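Notebook, bench 3.
Goal today: get a predicted structure for Sugar transporter from Acrocarpospora macrocephala so we can plan the truncation constructs. The sequence was checked against the plasmid map this morning, with no discrepancies at the termini. Length recorded as 452 residues. Pasting the sequence as submitted so the record is complete.
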Amino acid sequence: MFVAAAAAIGGFLFGYDSAVINGAVVGIQRHFHVGPVEIGFVVAIALLGSAAGAWFAGRIADRWGRTRTMQVAAALFAVSSIGQMLPFAIWDLALWRLLAGVAIGMASVIGPAYIAEVAPAAYRGRLGSFQQLAIVLGIAVSQLVNYGVARWAGGEVNYLLGGLQAWQWMLGACLVPALAYLAFALIIPESPRFLVMIGRGERARAVLREVEGEHADLDRRLAEIEGVLRAERLPRLSDLRGPLLGLVPIVWVGIVLSVFQQFVGINVIFYYSSVLWQSVGVTQAGSLLISFSSSIINIIGTFIAIALVDRIGRRPLLLAGSAGMAASLAVASWAFGYAHEVAGRVTLAGVPGAAALVAANVFVLFFALSWGVVVWVLLGEMFPNRIRAAALSVAAAAQWLANWLVTVTFPALSHWNLALTYLGYAVFAVLSLVFVSFFVKETKGRALEEMG
C-alpha cells in the first residue's frame, strides 16, 4: 500500500496542478490585462503538454526505468511550479504551464503502469484505484489551498503577500507536493518487470520478496515475467486499421467514450468554477469555497463508483450518469439565464441562484460516480489483447484533445452566452446516453481474452 500510494502521488499532482489554475484565473486576467481568449489559451495549453508527456512517457520508462521517470516528472513539476509563480509576461506563464502539462502527462501514464507491475495480483484492482482517488484528492486540496490563500489575502487574489500577489502563491504552492513526489520516487523500489527487462534478475527477486512476501513462489513469478517479455510484441498503430473510417470499430467506441467524457464540460467546473461563480455575483473567497465543496462531492462520487462498478456493471452506471448529468446541466442552463446586471455587477439571486449551485454539484456527483471512473475502467479492458496498448493510447490522446478544446473555448463561449453554453453541454450528455445504449457492451465479469 505504501509503494502504490507513493506512486499515486503523481496522480495527486495531476489533479492538483490541473485544478489549481481555477483560483488564479481572475488574478492572471487582471495582472496581465488579458481577455477570455488569452486566458483560455493559458489554462488549456497545459493539456497539450500533457498529451506530449503521455506520448513519450512509455518510451522513457522503458529506457530509464519507472522510478527514474517518476523522478523526472517530479522535477518538472517542481521547476514549472516556480516558473508559474514568477512569470514576467503572459506568454512566459503559458510556457511554464506547458512544461507542467508535460509532467502531468508523464505522471498520468507512469503511475498506473508502475502500480500494476508492482502490486500483487490479488490486490491489483484496489491498489490501481489509488491513482484515480489521488487525482480527485489533488483537485480537492488545490481548491482548499486556493481558498486559504484567498482568505489570507482578504478575499482579493491580486492582493500583495510578501512581495507576490495571492494568485502567484496559489500556483507556487504546487512545489510542496512536487518535492514530496520526488522524495518518495527516490526511495520506492524499481518495477520488477523493468529489472528483469534489463537483466537484473536478483534485484527483481528482492523486490518481489518485499511486495509479495516470503511465502510467494518467486521462481514461478520470475519465470512468468520472463515468459511474457519474450512473447510480448509492442502493438503498432497500424494494428488499429479497419473498415470504419480507417479504424477498427471498437477503437472508435473508445475514442467517442473519451470525447463524451470531456464534452459534457466537467473540467469547466474544476478549471473555471471560480470565474463562473464570480460572473454571477459570488465573491472571490466564496467562489473558491464553492469550488472546494464541489471537489469533496467529486471524492464522494468516486468512492461510490469504486464500490458499484464491479457489482452492478459499467453500462448501468454510465446510463445513470448520463441521465443525471443531462438533467442537472439543463437546470444550470435555465438558472444562468436569469443572471442580470445591477449597478454594474452581475447577480444571480433567489431561486435561480440556489438552483444553479445545486445543479452544478449534482452534475459533479453524477459524473464522478459514472463517467469519471467507468470510462477509464472500460478503456483498460474493452480492447482485444493484441491492440490494447495502442488503442488505449489513441483513446487517451482523444481525451486530452477533447479536454483541451472544451477548456480553451469556455471563456469565450461563457462570455457570449453562459446559459446556452451549459445547454450545449446538456445536449452532449443526452447524446452520450444514446451512444452508450446502442454501442457500448457490458464488460463486467468477462475475461480480458474475451474482448474484441
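Strands lie at 160-161, 164-165, 340-342, 345-347. The longest helix spans residues 388-439.
Flagging this for group meeting.
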